[in-house]
Design goal:
Two copies of one chain form a homodimer. The first copy, chain A, is an alpha/beta fold and about 400 residues long. Chain A has two domains: about 5-175, Carbamate kinase; about 255-400, 2-Layer Sandwich (VC0802-like), CATH 3.30.2130.10. Helices cover about 35% and strands about 30% of the residues of chain A. Chain A is built from eleven helices and 18 strands. Chain A has helices spanning about 15-30, 45-55, 65-90, 120-125, 155-165, 195-210, 215-220, 270-285, 315-325, 355-365, 390-400; strands spanning about 5-10, 35-40, 95, 105, 115, 130-135, 140, 145-150, 170-175, 195, 225-230, 240, 255-270, 290-295, 300-310, 330-345, 370-375, 380-385. An eight-stranded mixed sheet of chain A has the order 3-6-2-1-9-11-12-10, sandwiched between helices. The longest helix of chain A is centred in the first third of the chain and has 25 residues, at about 65-90. The radius of gyration of chain A is 23 Å and the shape is globular. The first copy, chain A, starts with a strand and ends with a helix. The mean pLDDT of chain A is about 90. The interface of A and B includes residues 66, 81, 95 and 146 of A.
Chain lengths: ~400, ~400
């Protein structure tokens, strides 16, 4: 049962040289006595290039079953090439597509979720001493159609396989671990040795970008220890696991999401029906709403503010025009160039005073925030983009990030 | 049962524009009331590019299971893109990989043969009104591994599907039919309206290059009418079918194979053991021998001549050196730049005098041939490359090709 799942993303296998490098690291791991399952993504820009080809054919409504058929070839190529490269290192390797690895999925094409994995075939090959190279990001649905799991799907494949094989999962990537703050933004950020699943989920969903939230969630659910580390295999990375009480910190990290829109709708007559109508219209158009607040104005009018992704700007405007045509009194404004800053930490729920320290930093920095929302382990602020670096530096100093 | 299988090769779908053009032709066929199954190859140079990538990793002994895994992605991409293009024309389409189309194969990787096809799934989609787009060249073996069928494999897929679906098979390509002689070599060649399976097999295997021999063989075995036509769908092509006696011609066509080596081994003591030893050594090294002749020399010595593909020159030399080291008296010569000219016709077996007319043309042309072999429906001559055009012109005139 001395097994491990190692996952390499598209950047790690972007060309033949990189594939050879990765093969050497994997071979070394096998030499050290591990039974290795590798999960790999498509090489570099392969997926994007395939999508571009599809777009040249289907402009408006793309057939997503065929899109899955098309883009799943990217991983199929990388598993074959990586298996060859591992064999060139002198170890037996065998590649398996999502279909062959019996990764059963369900849902809508291009956004399937894993329903079940039958690892019998995979374990048979492991028992024969093979390094098994599995295509990430893909599976097969009830109809026998090839499916894909959406952005970050290879992480999910890796953690799901580790869950079924009862072993740990190592995610190799182009960063050497999880940092208190994105080191590209704040160069004095510290690398974390450990982080809890919950904190990592908040960091992922709030824009830290290291690991897909679904993968972390699955790791938590099945108790899979996950390590995020640099793809050269030289440096110890960050472990994601269940933390003991005493390991909890007040604030573990700061994450930020750029490209946020902030929308304010004023002068709505206070009525739960009118307010819920707004969010129903947005939901119908599949606009993802993030932070929400509601404020009373005078004369029984209320104002509602929320944030959305700026990629949805056009559709948001469409919805708001419709809403304001129906609710005559209402008026909207959209602010662009908003950034969402979040502080995350398991200790927040137990340590009083964290929130007040954060508000203190904002006050001392003389920075206005437009919205604030809290969860048990995070506090998020929507601010103007121009204030980002000031507040990041000041929060980092206050919480020693 | 108003079905047809249409097959498009890699040149016909070499880029997005060509895929769109092919989709329009297919859509038109459906509009005319046909239930259409399409078999398609990988786009343009895709397969070669993938093989090049594999060669950068595995120099000597390539893992052919992984090579099949890799190169089968080429067709998977083209079926997805072609299905999207057909849908853009307003018709329902669905793509199936070899695995999904239940094309069961057997043999060694990269050279599998089709064992069986279960068309239940395919027919279900046809019944639903879909145009079914099947990946050529690939299938799945007993172990569930993805396999490929070797060069020209998509033709075989198409004819095999037509056989199982009990319909005709149309092979669309970059030539508008089968000619009496390759029109790139002899510009006055005539396009044939019909040709028999046997003649086509001889023409294919002798180097006419329009259609894979295995596909024609399969067509004959299952009585599948095959049409070879231009991929623009505008011009009537050539039908390959069982000919009635009265349709038989003395000489139907002339095919030629370039890149032939002619090997002569002199001074072998006449002994069936010594002669068969030579061919055993060649077979062990997997050298394909084509024409063979044996001549007596004086003093009980014999001379053996045979032709081989010049790609095998190095290995042929290795074998001959070994043989001549064992059989001390033997000496060999290798002639390069040999061309094999073959005349093919179902009528040859019934019409006397064809052979003598051919010999007459050689005599009148003052051209030496080095070897001659005959089958029931063909006569082949090995000649010097420099004599090719003279003899092609003179034979064409004699037999009105």
């Amino acid at each position: 049962m001395n097994r491990v799942v190692m996952k390499y993303g598209g950047t790690s296998v972007k060309n033949i040289d990189n594939i050879k490098k990765v093969a050497k690291i994997i071979a070394k791991r096998k030499e050290q006595g591990k039974n290795v399952v590798v999960v790999v993504s498509a090489m570099g820009n392969t997926t994007d290039n395939l999508i571009d080809m599809a777009k040249q054919i289907s402009k408006d409504k793309m057939n997503t079953r065929e899109l899955d058929m098309l883009i799943s070839t990217g991983e199929q190529q990388s598993i074959a090439l990586l298996s060859m490269a591992i064999e060139a290192e002198g170890y037996k390797a065998i590649s398996l597509t999502g279909f062959q690895a019996d990764i059963k999925t369900t849902g809508v094409h291009t956004k399937n979720t894993i329903k079940d994995i039958n690892t019998a075939k995979l374990e048979k090959y492991l028992d024969q001493g093979c390094i098994v190279v599995v295509a990430g990001f893909q599976g097969v649905n009830e109809s026998g159609d090839i499916t894909t799991l959406g952005r970050g799907g290879s992480d999910t494949t890796a953690v799901a396989l580790a869950a079924m094989l009862d072993c740990s999962c190592e995610i190799y990537t182009d960063v050497d671990g999880v940092y208190t703050i994105d080191p590209r933004v704040y160069k004095n950020a510290r690398k974390l040795d450990v982080i809890s699943y919950e904190e990592m989920m908040q960091m992922s969903s709030l824009g830290a970008g290291v690991l897909e939230t679904r993968a972390v969630q699955l790791g938590k659910q099945y108790g899979v220890p996950i390590m995020v580390a640099l793809n050269t295999g030289m440096i110890r990375g960050t472990y994601i696991k269940e933390l003991k009480k005493m390991e909890e910190r007040g604030v573990t990290g700061l994450s930020m999401a750029k490209g946020v829109l902030m929308i304010t709708v004023d002068n709505i007559n206070y009525s739960p029906v009118d307010i819920s109508h707004l969010f129903k219209l947005l939901a119908t158009e599949k606009v993802n709403i993030d932070m929400i607040s509601q404020n009373s104005q005078k004369d029984g009018l209320v104002s509602v503010s929320f944030t959305a992704d700026d990629e949805d700007k056009y559709i948001v405007e469409k919805v708001l025009n419709k809403y304001c045509a129906e609710i005559k009194s209402a008026e909207y404004t959209i602010e662009e160039d908003i950034v969402k800053i979040s502080l995350v930490g398991m200790g927040m729920m137990n340590q009083s005073g964290v929130a007040s320290r954060i508000f203190g930093v904002y006050a001392d920095s003389n920075i206005d925030f437009k919205l604030v929302t809290t969860s048990e382990i995070s506090v998020s602020y929507a601010i103007n983009k121009k204030d980002t670096m000031t507040i990041v530096n000041n929060l980092a100093r206050e919480f020693n990030l």
